[in-house]
Amino acid sequence: MESKTSEHTDTETEIRTLCDRVHNKHDRTAWTMATVRRLLPWIASTDGELRDSLVYVSLCDVLEMGNFQRNDLEWVLDEFISDRYLFRGIGPAESDDVFCRSFSLLIVDAILGTRAAHHMSTQTLQQVWDAYRDYVIRENDLRGYVKGKGWAHSLAHGADVAYSLITLNPPSKADVLQLFDIWRVKLSDGAYVFIDEEGERLLRAVFAALDVGILDEDDLCQVAASYGSTPVSNDYPLGQHAGENLKNFLMCWHIHADERRLDQLSTATYEALQTLKRQRSKWY
Q1: Where are the beta strands (DSSP E) in 53-144?
Q2: CA 64 – CA 204 distance, rounded (Å)
Q3: Which residues of 92-102 are buried (b: 16+ CB within 10 A; e: fewer)?
Q4: Is-above-0.90 flag for pTM?
Q5: Which residues, 6+ apart, have CB-to-CB distance to 255 below 8 Å?
Q6: Three-state DSSP state, 280
Q7: pLDDT at site 66
Q8: Residue in 113, 119, 115, 205 with CA at minimum distance from that of residue 155
Q9: Before 41, cis peptide (omega within 30)?
Q10: Backbone phi, then psi, for 182, in 5-degree steps?
Q11: According to the model, what pLDDT value does residue 3 have?
Q12: Which phi and psi angles does 146 have, rounded to 5°?
């Protein structure tokens, strides 16, 4: 169980040393909740190398190799879906707090990939789903790679959490359809052009919902149609960006449906693309 943290505040040098200990697979003394607690605050670092390559990787290693009880991991989940992490500074676009929020999602996903996650209660997993849904509605910073600071990638990281929850403890059909509609709104926002494989990460969750039986092919056809008929602004650049995001996502969706030989869905995504194309023709 969680205990009070030490009043000592680690320096960057101490954290780098701790990460080195974690990466030394023979030093099991580092695979503890004390290490997790020390690393937690550093997931918000704006140093991309420290955050991405050291702290994040170390947290994943400890969570995977440490012999943690379910209640330990549930405490970490509670921390990461709290205002201190997942919702820290949410609202304004292009704030450094996005790194804390986005990498909190990656750690949540790492926890969902542990053996202990299979024994977590339905209530706990639903709380994670609800927190992610609320988060993605409120997240306005949808940047991919940020020069000098590394990956923000909030949409893609969140899609990984959705995929894990869908495969681990399938949410309701209504929950999944609501999330896919939230993603549609995000893609059609137009504030950013998604060029960093966001669509591929979203589609993992889309097809997982089909594979586990939450949605059937008819459901996905209707979702695809809603993406194709999404109204986009006449303004440049927002309207242009929104149209490009929707087009690229549907093209990717169409290719995957075709590869899976889902003929009905392949046709539906193609028709959605044509609907979107007719709407965008006013720009050409």
Answers
A1: none
A2: 23
A3: eeebebbbbbb
A4: yes
A5: none
A6: helix
A7: 86
A8: 205
A9: no
A10: -60, -45
A11: 41
A12: -110, 115
